[in-house]
Amino acid sequence: MTTPNKTPPGADPKQLERTGTVREIGSQAVWSLSSCKPGFGVDQLRDDNLETYWQSDGSQPHLVNIQFRRKTTVKTLCIYADYKSDESYTPSKISVRVGNNFHNLQEIRQLELVEPSGWIHVPLTDNHKKPTRTFMIQIAVLANHQNGRDTHMRQIKIYTPVEESSIERR
């Protein structure tokens, strides 16, 4: 069990992008959900608005599936959660899995969240800090605070490293 990477608490992942070392690639993926209440689906999860959210509508685990058309290098996953607003809908245990498809997913991180507030930065790297190459990421909500049934996730971002140019600048 790992704890999420603690960049400055609640740090906006757009700050990561401004460093020029990563870029957000969620728009290159096909997103699907295990369930959702009408009007609380993928569009809300990806709309850059912290006031909107995905709300599941079914039994656990609640799943967010992110599939790329080609094998893609991923470095960091950022999830926005807000216990003060969402209470029992807030995830308390999350599994992050990667693989080629639904049939060979492997868990690479399991997180325990205690009343999270803000951005949670999850490294998608191996033991040598090398980014993961994958066709698919699955985020599974295994449990919620206060034994809540359905879950809220406000935003999810996925980052790839920006490749260093091999051309020397003079």
Automatic annotation (TrEMBL):
Annotated SMART domains: APC10 (SM01337)
One GO CC term on file: anaphase-promoting complex
Record domain DOC: where: 1-170
Main function: Component of the anaphase promoting complex/cyclosome (APC/C), a cell cycle-regulated E3 ubiquitin ligase that controls progression through mitosis and the G1 phase of the cell cycle. The APC/C complex acts by mediating ubiquitination and subsequent degradation of target proteins: it mainly mediates the formation of 'Lys-11'-linked polyubiquitin chains and, to a lower extent, the formation of 'Lys-48'- and 'Lys-63'-linked polyubiquitin chains. The APC/C complex catalyzes assembly of branched 'Lys-11'-/'Lys-48'-linked branched ubiquitin chains on target proteins.
Subunit structure of this chain's protein: The mammalian APC/C is composed at least of 14 distinct subunits ANAPC1, ANAPC2, CDC27/APC3, ANAPC4, ANAPC5, CDC16/APC6, ANAPC7, CDC23/APC8, ANAPC10, ANAPC11, CDC26/APC12, ANAPC13, ANAPC15 and ANAPC16 that assemble into a complex of at least 19 chains with a combined molecular mass of around 1.2 MDa; APC/C interacts with FZR1 and FBXO5. The C-terminus of APC10 binds to CDC27/APC3. Interacts with PIWIL1; interaction only takes place when PIWIL1 binds piRNA. Interacts with FBXO43; the interaction is direct.
PANTHER family for this protein: ANAPHASE-PROMOTING COMPLEX 10 (PTHR12936), ANAPHASE-PROMOTING COMPLEX SUBUNIT 10 (PTHR12936:SF0)
Full protein name: Anaphase-promoting complex subunit 10
